[in-house]
Amino acid sequence: MKVMAIMRPAAYLAESVKLAGSMGFKTITAPMIDVVDKTDANFKGFVERIMGGVSDYVIFTSANGVEFTLLKLDEPDEFIEYLNRTKVVAIGPKTKEALIKNGIVVSIVPESYSSEGLVEHLGGIEGAVIEIARSSHGAPELVRGLLEKGAEVHETQVYEIIRPSDERHKRLVELALAGDIDIFAFTSSMMARNLMALADETGVREELIRMMNEKIVAAIGKPTSDTLSGFGVKVKIMPERYTFEELLLECRKQDC
Fold it and tell me: How far is the C-alpha of 184 from the C-alpha of 6, rounded, in Å?
């Protein structure tokens, strides 16, 4: 049975382990990223434009973005009523599910679950007012691409990604260096950067990269793949559809 390292946020670990186990993988877990609430100076304007009927599109790039947005509001039901008068965009199925769960009507989901796919999908947006609610580490390609298409873009960071640290992380690195991990699953660029930061702190980055390149590295999305490549890590699997389930299916299909 192949051993897969899963480094997703704590809130997703149980579900991820269960899914991986159902596909025949043994797992080692250590969340390389976690999420905490954040309210920036742009949030008030974000709410006012939506409630005032100014916004044409509202983009959510994660389920966390949905939940952290609604948590900040004193009257979320009223906000949702006005939000549903806009075109709400979900970057992928998990985000769509979180929106629908909260009574929000989803108008658009791009075929490719990425910032680039979203920009490509949105047409006829010249002069449109577009809101983005996302993390403090959102891909710059989204804002840049929408601006290039002539939209008026406003971004608010509704949560922050942090790097947790405990014994699980030390154990994961030890197992990796011992060659006991067969597949390294990365679902974000931040996850890759945090693993390399951990390796730097313990002076094992080169050794870890060498060992990873002898195994299987799977990444969701081109930005994540590019980040890993920048560290000298060879990405062998990148699913066409950017979901963790698709990553697992690709690994199983290719007999990783």
Answer: 7
Nearest one of 157, 64, 155 to 102, comparing CA atoms: 64
Helices (H), the chain: 10-22, 43-51, 63-71, 76-83, 93-101, 115-121, 140-148, 167-177, 189-201, 205-214, 222-230, 244-253
Long-range CB contacts (< 8 A, 24+ apart) of 226-230?
226/189, 227/189, 227/192, 227/193, 228/186, 228/192
Exposed, middle or buried: residue 19 (CB in 10 Å: 0-12, 13-18, 19+)? middle
Instruction: Answer whether 145's CB lies under 8 Å from 86's CB.
Output: no
Same domain, 53 and 128: yes
One domain for residues 181 and 93: no
| CA 193 to chain centroid | 14
Q: Do 156 and 89 share a structural domain? A: yes
pLDDT digits (tens, 9 = 90+) for 62-116: 999 999 999 999 999 999 999 999 999 999 999 999 999 999 999 999 998 888 9
Distance separating alpha carbons of residues 78 and 35, to the nearest angstrom: 26
Domain boundary among 118, 144, 161: 161
pTM (predicted TM-score): 0.75
Largest CA distance in the chain: 58
13 Cβ contact partners less than 8 Å away, ≥ 6 residues apart: 6, 29, 31
166 exposure class (CB count in 10 Å sphere: 0-12, 13-18, 19+):
exposed
